[in-house]
């Protein structure tokens, strides 16, 4: 027995030696061919990316439906975009849209209370959410395939027949009021809110925030009227993705929404935006900070601007990676900031904001301001090189696949294109749009859309630590962000 075992061990050892020898010869070539410098890496061209397209159907009442089947999991999701938004609020009732969006769901429907709706969804492991932002309203639902029909009917109730329960409205109001009381606690929130005012102008609804006074003016009747004004099938785009069959889901959509009368044709009011920059230094005192927050910039562009693709590359070069200019020069080389970002904002139906921002120690506030301005100027004085542009393109194109790696992500993009009136080919045009941009176009776009001489510069920090760094500027305008007291001292 011992002799036999030794023989087996010997044969096994021999096989292992042969295997290692063969493996060595097969692998030696690739090992010798490995590069020693990162610049020697060669990447094969990207393969063709097949992006599925949803099927588009328009009901007789104007409801636009986008369908995309995905049978990988027994789940179905529905998303709706509603043509509404806080940018159309009356100034004396800022917060009305936000309240409507919240209580649309929490306030229940005419058939079931908000609490009953919570219990129904919890039992089904389903979800229904609603909200209204500055330029659109949203509603979404998700459920298991077996529960989809039942949950979708409730989803239709939420959109069509909300109850706007008075008690739930009061709770939502209190939550907004609590937010008003805390609105100056977070420095980043202060910068975001006040910088918008510098760029868009205080008269633009994009900069308005609720106050105690505006919230006190909002009644349940206002909420009901807001829903009555904006929630109509011809102002809604509905997208459904997941595990469903088209004939059955279309029949369900017609059952739930098909008899909803078409609303009146209405032209939404234009929203004012300050078009001329207001260059200068602006300061906000916040004495509980150990760092300074700095933001600077001006108006950006819309995504349908001819420079769109060029600016996507500009933004990647500026702060799209840890090797980008802002990170490399301000964070790594100068050690002025851990958190630094920048780029030209690209919005859908109004210009975004071109903004460079950072956090830095209070004693390096002045150096931080100078460093951000220098990087904006360097995009022209030391324009992007061919190598920078090529690396930026490669990074953008390689990461693009992760934005379309599921049917629900793709459908979300098509909903946005439909809502803002962009062509349905917009997604397919992105890769070639990036690939065809030249270095000269990138440089020209950077020069057109990053203008340091037009920067509004906002600094938030403690007076003792930050304010001395601003004394070298001839004019510094201090902004008052005190929260007005509630009407009547309530």
For the structure shown, list the relevant keywords.
17 helices, disordered N terminus, 490 residues, alpha/beta, Cytochrome Bc1 Complex, Chain A, domain 1, 6-stranded mixed beta sheet, 14 strands
- Structural class by SSE content: alpha/beta
How confident overall, as mean pLDDT? 92
User: Could you say how many structural domains there are in total?
Assistant: 2
Q: What amount of the residues lies in strands?
A: 15-25%
Gyration radius, in Å: 28 Å
Q: CATH fold name of the largest domain, please?
A: Cytochrome Bc1 Complex, Chain A, domain 1
CATH class of the largest domain: Alpha Beta
The helical percent reads 40-55%
The total strand number stands at 14
Oligomer: single chain
Going across the major beta sheet, what is the strand order?
1-2-6-3-5-4
Cα(first) to Cα(last) distance is 96 Å
- CATH-level-4 superfamily name of the largest domain: Metalloenzyme, LuxS/M16 peptidase-like
| Shape estimate | globular
Unreliable stretches covering 5 or more consecutive residues:
1-9, 16-28
**Total helical segments:** 17
Give the biggest sheet.
6 strands, mixed
CATH architecture term of the largest domain: 2-Layer Sandwich
Question: Helices and strands in order, then pairings?
Answer:
Elements: H1 2-33, E1 55-58, E2 64-69, E3 75-82, H2 96-106, H3 114-124, E4 127-132, E5 137-144, H4 148-160, H5 166-181, H6 187-200, H7 212-217, H8 220-230, E6 236-242, H9 246-257, E7 280-285, E8 291-299, E9 301-302, H10 308-319, H11 325-333, E10 340-344, E11 346-347, E12 353-361, H12 365-381, H13 386-400, H14 407-420, H15 426-435, H16 439-449, E13 456-461, H17 463-466, E14 476-478
Parallel strand pairs: 2-6, 7-13, 7-14, 9-11
Antiparallel strand pairs: 1-2, 3-5, 3-6, 4-5, 8-12, 8-13, 10-12
Helix pairs in contact: 2-5, 2-8, 4-9, 10-13, 10-16, 11-12
